[in-house]
Amino acid sequence: MLKERGMIFSNEKKANFLFENISYYRLSGYWFEEYLDIQEKTCFKDNTLFEDAFERYCFDKELRKLVFSEIEKIEVSIRAQIINVMSLAYGPYWIDNNTLFVDELERRDFKQSLIDTFIKSDELFIRSFKEKYSNDLPPSWEILELISFGKLSKLYRNIQCAEKAIISNYYGLPEYVLVKWLHSLAYVRNICAHHTRLWNRHISISPILLRHSKRTWLKEQVNNNRIYFSLSIILFFLQTINPNSSFKLKIYKIIENYPKINIIKMGFPINFEKEVLWKR
Question: CA nearest 55: which of 18, 108, 16, 6?
C-alpha cells in the first residue's frame, strides 16, 4: 500500500520485520508530513524513504526516554517541596485545612482520591500504616508519594496560602508560571509514558511564557507550544534541582546522532546554541 503511494523502501525485508513488531499506525505518525496532501493521504512526495520515517521514529524514541527521565526529577523535587513546606507550616494533615485552598470542592475531591488510593495501595509503607493506625489517611509525606504528577500539579494550583510563593520562589518562578509549567510538564510526561509522538508535536497544554527571570532563561521569545520550549523549561528547573545535569549534552548528542531530523519543526530557533541556557 505504501509503495503504491510512492514510498521507497531500501530494504523491504527489514521493513516487513519492523511492521511485525511496530504497528502501522504508530509508524504512520512519522511519515504523514510526506504526503502531497495530508488530508487525502493518497500520494507521497518524491523521494520519500521509509528509512527516513523510521529514523524519525528512533529519534523520537530516544528523545522521549530522556525527557521522561528528566521530568521525573522535577516531579520528585516539586513533591518534596510541597510536602516539606506545607507540613512544616501546617502539620502532617494540612490537606484537611480548607482555609489553605482556593476551591473547597476540588480539595474534597482530591482528598477522596487520596482515600481511594490509600485503600487500594499495596505499598509496604502503606500496609505498615494500616496495621498500626486506624486513621483514614497517613500523613501527607506518606500519602502524597502515591499520587500522579498530574494530581500533584493540580494540588499546587489549588493552594492559596503564603507557602505557595515559598515553593515557587525556590525555583525562581512566580506562582502563576509554576502552576502553568507543572501542568504542561505533566502533559508532556504522559506523552512520553504512553510512547506517543513527541518530536514535532503541537503541545496542546502550552506552558506560559516567562518574560523575566533572575536565573538563566531564554533571551529570544519562541513558540511556547513546541517541544523546544518544554526542553528549555526542563533545563531551567535543572539549574535548581541538578546543576551538574548532563541533560543538555544528551540533547545535543541525540540531535547530532540524527542529522536528518529537522529540529526547526520542534521549535528550535536558528542558532539556538547561542542562548546562554543552551550553551555547552
Answer: 18
* CB-count exposure of residue 219 (10 Å: 0-12, 13-18, 19+): exposed
CA dist 8 → 3, 13, 38, 52, 54 (Å):
6, 13, 18, 10, 12
Bridge partners of residue 35, in order along the sequence: 44
Q: What angle do CA 129, 135, 138 make, to 5 degrees?
A: 50
Q: How far is CA 251 from CA 5, 27, 215, in A?
A: 34, 22, 21
- Among candidate residues 61, 73, 51, 57, the one with its CA nearest the CA of residue 7: 51
Check the CA dihedral 239-183-158-127 and report its sign: negative
Query: What are the pLDDT digits (tens) for 108-161?
Result: 999 999 999 999 999 999 999 999 999 999 999 999 999 999 999 999 999 999
